[in-house]
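Protocol step 4 of 6.
Sequence for tyrosine ammonia-lyase (Acinetobacter celticus) entered exactly as in the expression construct, tag removed. Do not edit the line below.
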Amino acid sequence: MLTIGETPLSIEDVVAVARKEQKVALPASAEWHALIQRGADFLDQLLQDEGVIYGVTTGYGDSCLVEIPPHQVHELPLHLSRFHGCGMGQNLDLTTARAVVAVRLCSLARGYSGVSHSLLERLAWMLNENVIPVIPSEGSVGASGDLTPLSYIAGALVGERDVYYQGKIVPITQVYAEKDMQPLVLRPKEGLALMNGTAVMTAIACLNYKKAEQISLASTLITALNVLALEGNPSHFDEVLFAQKPHLGQQHIATQLRDWLNSQVQTEHQSSRLQDRYSLRCAPHIIGVFEDSKTWLRQFIENELNSSNDNPLIDPVNLRVLHGGHFYGGHIAQAMDSLKIMIANIADLMDRQLAQLVDYKMNNGLPRNLTGSSIERLPLNHGFKAVQIGVSAWTAEALKQTLSASIFSRSTECHNQDKVSMGTIAARDASRVILLTEQVIAALSCASVQAVKLKGVDTELSPVLTAFKHWVLQSFNYVEEDRPLQNELQALVDRLENLALLNSALV
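Step 5 output, structure tokens:
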């Protein structure tokens, strides 16, 4: 059970909740309950005193000069969720939508948003009962936060949207009726607190970060196999060599390659080529950019995750209303724009390695296109020829997606939101680049395992590479006669997140 509200969450916490590996709970301490209640009570008192509160007694955004009559204040949150119900595009999948709910709960449970215990309890209930709002992916400019996609959480709470439930998409009213529950009645500011924040981009960023870690690991394992298959030179990863360029992440990748490559095998099966092509020799330098960036990427993502990022904030300690711009998703935008470049470069690295493997002019004696057919059947068979074309296509599309979203700020909402982050678009772009790169990784996993088999070194692998080979062969059979590989490639994409378990067992 993961307690949300008093202590910071990690990226891994969000991913665990998203994957239904952990249920959630709110803090039991009297201090936390008092903090939440104090903020809600302060708002009630301000309303009684006829204080002016943005988004409570005024309209939203450029409409902040519009006064809301006291008898209409309680209707305002409902209107906010309704007029933002214009999201388009593909819906976020269930795992991503669960991450969004978890991230929003984390922010609101910090106690600086003026929301009630009832709202926090209903969000926790959604996660634990797996009643998750269906959220369209498109429509956010990343400031004032993820207004339109987050409106689908607010709308579901009040009984007006669809949810994922028991493997189907159904109206939330059906679930409430089945469970004999009433829709939540949002208090003043609760609609704004739910919607005016960075939960969608941050949730996607958490998932992207963990997937990127698996891509880094897999690409390093694949590189090691390809050094063996292509009779590469292990001295390119020498410890003294890498001590002279002390990027820690880059050194980590070089260390892994040294540890995973079998020196005896390398001595027996080494090309006369003095220096390998860059896609082998410079692999630590390319993969290492992500490894060296993990520290600041995690810092950006987890700081945003554990922040109060709606507006205005309600200070429950000093009893003040604080107007600001914490809904601006610039840090997530920068993190995701940077991440997609790092990952696309790894896709490009893998694409270049596969080009070496299939080309008889540069693969040091491997069969054309890595075909495993007999001599008699060789004229008919084409091995990985089409897979290499597919990898080129996926890599090209990934590279095309790397233009930074954050530089495309658009002035919106009567020029009130005149500089916006585009953080959610950056996060979605990164997700697309990651998926394309996962497809490249799946193809290279099969090709590199096939290559070491054809080279005759698959029985001489180090324990780590042997374990990786067996992991690949759970979803892939060696290609002798041509056959469709789509299902095997997709199975590896689907299993890639489990590569972390393999790594944990080997470390």
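Step 6, annotate. The mean pLDDT is 93.
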